[in-house]
């Protein structure tokens, strides 16, 4: 077995070539993996900021520039599901669409 290190604030999901993605989330520390068979996929589970700029129209047909700053982090228990359904770049795929819709609804509801 070869050692694999998971840094502080990170979690790992183990991909096994024979069994697929395992349901166990591995915490911080050094862990032993079977070379060539198991591979760790490491996720950053610390709160991270993300700025999302949006240009939207208001009720009086003017363009409004809004930038939303989000602090986000994944739910560690759901990391195997996030990896299998969305991928490692879940923040790039999910956050822009959600924030755009939320900001548009806020601008429309504002007087």
TrEMBL record:
GO terms for biological process: DNA biosynthetic process; mitochondrion organization. InterPro entries: Band_7 (IPR001107), Prohibitin (IPR000163). This is Prohibitin. CDD domains: SPFH_prohibitin (cd03401). The keyword Membrane applies. It comes from Brachypodius melanocephalos. In the plasma membrane, cooperates with CD86 to mediate CD86-signaling in B lymphocytes that regulates the level of IgG1 produced through the activation of distal signaling intermediates. Upon CD40 engagement, required to activate NF-kappa-B signaling pathway via phospholipase C and protein kinase C activation. Belongs to the prohibitin family.
């Amino acid at each position: 077995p070869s050692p694999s290190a998971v840094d502080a604030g990170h979690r790992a999901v183990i991909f096994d070539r024979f069994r697929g993605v395992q349901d166990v989330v591995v915490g911080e520390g050094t862990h032993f993996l079977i070379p060539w068979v198991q591979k760790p996929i490491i996720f950053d589970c610390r709160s991270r900021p993300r700025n999302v700029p949006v240009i939207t129209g208001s009720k009086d047909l003017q363009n409004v520039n809004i930038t939303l700053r989000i602090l986000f982090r994944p739910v560690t228990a759901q990391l195997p599901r996030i990896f299998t359904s969305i991928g490692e770049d879940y923040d790039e795929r999910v956050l822009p669409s959600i924030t755009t819709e939320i900001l548009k609804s806020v601008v429309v509801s504002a007087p």
